[in-house]
Q: What sequence folds into this?
C-alpha cells in the first residue's frame, strides 16, 4: 500500500501544484487513499520531497531531481571539496574532504550530466558510473573544466 501511495504522490506532485500537506492529503483522499496528516508528513520525508519556489511567497512540492544545479554552485562544490580522482574502465572515483562526498554526489546528480548513469557516495569517496567507457574522456574533461 505504501509503495502505491508513494507512486501516487509522485504522480500528483508532477501533475499538480501542491504546496501544503493538507492539499496533498486531499488529493490522495480523492484518489482513494485514506491518509492522515502524519502519514503524509512521513511520506514527504521518505520521498525526500522539497519545496520549489513558484513565485513570491509561493511554493510547491517537488522531487529533488527537479532542481537543477546552477553552474556556479556546482563549480564551488567541486573546487572546494574535490581532492583528487581516478578512473577504472567506466567508473570514476572521486575523493573529497571528509564528510562532503554526499553533497558533491548530489550536486553532480542534480547537474544531470548525460555521461553519468549514477553515483554512490560514502563519507569522502564517490563512485560514479559512466554510461559507457567511451564517455569517460568527456566526463573527465567536464570535471576538469570545473576544477580549474
A:
Amino acid at each position: 500500500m505504501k509503495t502505491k501511495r508513494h507512486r501516487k504522490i509522485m504522480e500528483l506532485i508532477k501533475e499538480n501544484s501542491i504546496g501544503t500537506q493538507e492539499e496533498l492529503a486531499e488529493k490522495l483522499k480523492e484518489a482513494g487513499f485514506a491518509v492522515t496528516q502524519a502519514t503524509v508528513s512521513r511520506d514527504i520525508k521518505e520521498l525526500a520531497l522539497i519545496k520549489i519556489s513558484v513565485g513570491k511567497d509561493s511554493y510547491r512540492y517537488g522531487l529533488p531531481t527537479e532542481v537543477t544545479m546552477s553552474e556556479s554552485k556546482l563549480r564551488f562544490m567541486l573546487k572546494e571539496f574535490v581532492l583528487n580522482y581516478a578512473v577504472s574502465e567506466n567508473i570514476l572515483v572521486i575523493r573529497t574532504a571528509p564528510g562532503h562526498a554526499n553533497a558533491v554526489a548530489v550536486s553532480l546528480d542534480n547537474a544531470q550530466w548525460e555521461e553519468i548513469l549514477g553515483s554512490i557516495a560514502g563519507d569522502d569517496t564517490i563512485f560514479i558510473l559512466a554510461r559507457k567507457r567511451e564517455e569517460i574522456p568527456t566526463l573527465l574533461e567536464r570535471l576538469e573544466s570545473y576544477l580549474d
